[in-house]
Amino acid sequence: MFSRRNFIGGAGAAMAAATAASVSKVAMAALPEPVIQTRPDTMPPLVPDTGRPYNPVVTLNGWTLPWRMNNGIKEFHLVAEPVVREMTPGFKAHLWGYNGQSPGPTIEVVEGDRVRIFVTNRLPEVTSVHWHGQRLPNGMDGVSGLTQKGIEPGKTFVYEFVARRPGTFMYHPHADEMVQMAMGMMGFWITHPKARHPLIDEVDRDFVFLLNAYDIEPGSATPKIMTMLDFNLWSWNSRIFPGIDPLVVRQYDKVRLRIGNLTMTNHPIHLHGHEFTVTGTDGGPTPKASRWPEVTTDIAVGQMRQVEFLADEQGDWAFHCHKSHHTMNAMGHNVPTMIGVDHRSVARQITQLVPDYMVMGERGMHDMTEMEMPLPDNTAAMMTGTGPFGPVGMGGMFSVLKVRKDQKRGDYGDPGWYAHPAGTVASEWSAALDQPARSGTHGVGSMPSAGKPSGVVEVTVRKPAGGHTGH
Ligand SMILES: [Cu+2]
Description:
Bound molecules: copper (II) ion
Order of helices and strands: EHHEEEEEEEEEEHEEEEEEEEEEEEHEEE
């Protein structure tokens, strides 16, 4: 599941050697050995074997960072470094991240824990780590230049504080932020309550993921860091559909989702088939009187929303960002709208000059889902993913909540597609239905026609005649 990597000359180190800073072996010896993750799969929850017990979270296409106990202090080791992240099968991005992945591993602690985090910088420039949302001494806040010196390449800094309030937090650099966040440097932090908390319910499944976005030209692998809004890859934990794992739950599980937004725009996150309640923000659990049911919650830039629901409806329920352009992959933005334009005759002429010319978009973009279009190497298909009934036509920020009555407690394995009971799937109309009773004798509607004038009524306008007389 994990690999522990020797900094000097391991296979993983060689991959990133061109840009990564070298780190002194002697300096590393006293630190907790950094744990490196090489796979983008959703790892099972990390059940704590030291410290206070808690119910661990599951990071979508991610993992939780193991720690070591040192005289009652939980010690973690984060390594900021260049990584290769498979964003979906067939498409790998060259990002920056932590411990082999982008996003970095989730850090899970318990309210009241004293936490020590070593941060080693293997990037080619200074970095720092800001612990977004935490109560901590000002000098541990991670703002380079303001509260600390930047961590130079090859150096290790240590942060230490008490996790004072339970909740969901994020971490990210506060040094050359625009570049480092556009390159994928971010992670989640969960502080579990130390005892039963009146505003924090116990749940059966607790999923976490970050919203992030990249601008990577089709056929290339490194994000364009100057892009401010016009990203072409909208991802959850640096994965795009169909590369995002489903959220698998057992019917009647109480489910919590913690979703943080570190993109440059807001995302209305929408769940099908269930209502949920927003139970917490980065500021902590929300008061019960302030909660109301929703099926979509908007998550603004730099915000976390924690939502909860009872998964009582079986099925494969779509779960996605409601901005429809965010459920697409690697779109060019200069594609003209071709709907209604019949350019087949033009295409015939063009094809004589350019044999690969392709007519697209004149009936909408659905054809893109089935098109055998030659893509540059290392490019994610724009909209893809195949379900039991054909193409789903989605990419980007899209996944599926799979609710199954026979899923085992604690089993996150993919159960396959939902088997719909007979007669519960929308299908082509093919037979006459019983006619509804009609209340009138005229017309085809069921509204009474009494009182309606018969025949065609033509509305005419009579213009005033005779000038301004009479007033
Ligand atoms: Cu979105």
